[in-house]
């Protein structure tokens, strides 16, 4: 079984106030070309088709043209919605589209929607788990007593997966990690899934699947090598992604469910680039390098430069951000000082604050009150007392 895994199209996105629709259509055209060259059995799209729940009209037109071209190819399209999408808008006419090989799933089903595709070794079962926040999932599956997201997803998988000997693939949009969130590389263009909650899932919950096709994180990366993978976005959507190399994942599964993934890299119409140097160096760089790219310029000059942004724009028409190295260093020093302060004990910080405000030491009664309050809260610096 051979299928292409992509995610996070974000059709209709802006970079600052610049529309990326033309760039996105070019990336989708490259994808169509790769599909024609690779002749996969299926194209898996793991969510975030649009950039917003109510997409722009011109974004809808791009999406419609893309689906029309896919329907003309002999490839099954398996698509779920992500946290940026409106489930109803993306899956409109899905019953009609299914007749043309386009299976679009906007809402999780109980049990999960499943489709079987066949190759010479038998059937592969694809399970669909579109994005819904954990509160909604608990309502759908009647699991309101479950407070841990991993327990919630574990129960969803247990009641959905059929032990029929088929090889199994899960299509899921969410935050999956082998341990903690910090184990995965994130970017500034990814929207928080739940404010004030965990809403991430341990990768081990999905061990029953031979492959988990993930969407949400924008850098191509493995969660579990050979098993659970983010394909990443087709394009760079923030300067935190400047060093990413965008690709699509070509997944090949043998008769035993063993996975091999290769990448086909995409060439952006306009790249996102961070340029660092003096004003003179950036203005006098040779040739037309980066003339059409989106630029964040970081100036290393100590002295003031008159109208640097407007003047740099004559050299780089698509410059979108200007920063100064000295300001970044000052911000870094402030952040380091804040981290150092947060690591100290509250009692010590109170002592310094009282001395600064009053010019003398706090009384023994005041110190005792602060000590009792801190112990009652169970806090020491950014740590808690352990019983």
How would you describe the overall organization of this protein?
The chain folds into three domains: 2-265, Purple Acid Phosphatase, chain A, domain 2 (4-Layer Sandwich); 272-327, no CATH class; 343-384, no CATH class. Helices cover 30% and strands 26% of the residues. The chain contains eleven helices and 21 strands. The protein has helices spanning 21-38, 57-71, 87-90, 94-98, 134-141, 149-160, 279-283, 308-313, 325-342, 346-358, 364-377; strands spanning 2-6, 14-15, 18-19, 42-46, 76-80, 102-105, 113-119, 122-129, 167-173, 175-177, 200-202, 211-215, 221-224, 228-230, 247-253, 259-265, 272-277, 294-299, 319-324, 379-380, 383-384. The strands form six sheets. A six-stranded mixed sheet has the order 6-5-4-1-15-16. It has a six-stranded mixed sheet with strand order 7-8-9-12-14-13, with no helix packed on it. A three-stranded parallel sheet has the order 17-18-19. Helix 1 (21-38) runs parallel beside helix 2 and helix 10 (346-358) runs antiparallel to helix 11 (364-377). The longest helix is centred in the N-terminal third of the chain and has 18 residues, at 21-38. Mean pLDDT is 89; it is low at 380-387.
How is this fold's topology laid out?
Layout: E1 2-6, E2 14-15, E3 18-19, H1 21-38, E4 42-46, H2 57-71, E5 76-80, H3 87-90, H4 94-98, E6 102-105, E7 113-119, E8 122-129, H5 134-141, H6 149-160, E9 167-173, E10 175-177, E11 200-202, E12 211-215, E13 221-224, E14 228-230, E15 247-253, E16 259-265, E17 272-277, H7 279-283, E18 294-299, H8 308-313, E19 319-324, H9 325-342, H10 346-358, H11 364-377, E20 379-380, E21 383-384
Parallel strand pairs: 1-4, 4-5, 5-6, 8-9, 9-12, 10-11, 12-14, 17-18, 18-19
Antiparallel strand pairs: 1-15, 2-3, 7-8, 13-14, 15-16, 20-21
